[in-house]
Design brief:
Blueprint: E1 2-10, H1 14-25, E2 30-33, E3 46-49, E4 52-55, H2 66-75, E5 80-84, E6 87-91, E7 94-98, H3 102-126, H4 135-143, H5 145-160, H6 169-175, H7 181-193, E8 212-216, H8 221-233, E9 237-239, E10 243-250, E11 255-261, E12 267-277, H9 281-287, H10 295-299, E13 303-314, E14 323-326, E15 335-338, H11 339-342, E16 352-361, H12 366-369, H13 372-386, E17 394-407, H14 413-427, E18 431-433, H15 436-439, H16 445-461
Parallel strand pairs: 1-2, 1-12, 2-9, 6-14, 12-18
Antiparallel strand pairs: 3-4, 5-8, 6-7, 10-11, 11-12, 13-16, 13-17, 14-15, 15-16
Length: 500
Amino acid sequence: MSHHTETLVIGAGPAGLTASYLLSKHGHAVTVLESDPAQVGGISRTVSHNGYLFDIGGHRFFSKSKAVVDLWDEILPNDFIERPRLSRIYYNGKYYAYPLKAFEALKNLGLATSAACVTSYLYARARPVQEPKNFHEWVRNQFGERLFSIFFKTYTEKVWGMSCDAISADWAAQRIKGLDLGAAILDGVKRSLGLRKRQKAGGPVIKTLIESFRYPRRGPGMMWEAAAAKTQAQGGKVLLDRRVDSLSYDTGTGLWTVSAKRGDGSRETFTAKHVISSAPVRDLVNAIRPRPLSTFNARALAYRDFLTVALIAKSDRNFPDNWIYIHDPSVKVGRVQNFRSWSPEMIPDEAHTCLGLEYFCFEGDGLWTASDADLVALAKAEISRIGLIDPADVVDACVVRQPKAYPVYDEDYSAHVATVRRELQRDYPTLHLVGRNGMHKYNNQDHAMMTAMLTVENIRAGTRLHDVWRVNEDAEYTEAGISGAQDALGSERLVPRKVA
């Protein structure tokens, strides 16, 4: 069976559904193909298990883009709640506020360790490593070996699966730029004494230090379920259980032919003038027929994956953190989410708590391939070691695996992406790449949305008005919305690179 549409969208995540919603709103025929058989949202979906709701990775709804915020309000006008932002660091049996409070940190570390940290810092400043080449050497020069080992080493290596000795010093210099230990101590003292002034209305916002954020009351999936429903109400189609496995472009007709396979083995064919893809670049290029010359480059792109073990426990223990960063090397877990703190509606029973233990891994490694039972046993043992809940109180559990969570920026990724991009733009003028995995760019939800918003503008105009590849993490967006966005976009969210 063959179906025709003006624009075919591959993937029903934030980028794909933003595109489908806006296109259908303006009267364009659009069809979305999503491989998941049950739900939309991609990594921003909300998983449900016996009435308990899980956010995969944690999604704060905060953006410097007025256009994105306005679109959130348009799609989901009555279901946002305001939530306090609170995170802590767990290390060696103690919890530390994040950002750090000086008095609390000194108390938790103890006099001997605090003195050792100061001594280590002074020694590193007096005898720095000349021309530091890796993350370890750069951080050691700036903060000393002891602070590096406590607050930098373990968590960084858990998240990225790389030794700090193998991560380029360039990433450390950019990621921690502007952080001065003296200024940090002064700020920590002010926080400890309650003397830190609140952010002035209308002043510049440091994204990592926002004190509150908006959140859909039943998780981020609400946003994307609403976007899918409104797409369909506006005449578009959102089809689940369709995994795209081949695309071909006819230069004579200017039409794409796309084949999608369902879970039962049946197949459907679609034709379209435009294709918008948020599928991983590696998968998309591998599906194009005849195979592009840049297939080798696409296959070389790597991804970091993770899984969440959600533990549901009968416990009256409550703590306000949205999540806790686990810097302790004695456990494998990297971060613990507290779903009730994201929204009380995520937890249907007030007598229970639900915590999500996040493990960073590579698809196919020991953690990824472990059985659900073994992962639950590991999570229960580690949550006991951390001391958040008693494993004997755990009454239910759920494991959620998330492949391709983070595009990896290795030493060759940029050249590979550039080669793929150059060939696709030259040979396929109506193929549009959007979103995190669709562009192999480590961007947040709002930036994935912006790539789709600009792509829709390009399609409606019949020409590439905007260069969507300029949408990145720290971009400042104009109050005028997307009309002036191109001149305002220019920086990039940072991930570690290997030592050259």
